[in-house]
Amino acid sequence: MEYNSTQTMNDTQLRLKAIALSNVISTILNRVVKQKGKMNQYSMVIQWSEEDQLFLVTIPEFAERVVMPCTHGNTREEAIRRGEEVIEMYLEAWQAEEKSIPSPRVFQVA
Question: In terms of pTM, does the model score above 0.85?
Answer without folding.
Answer: no
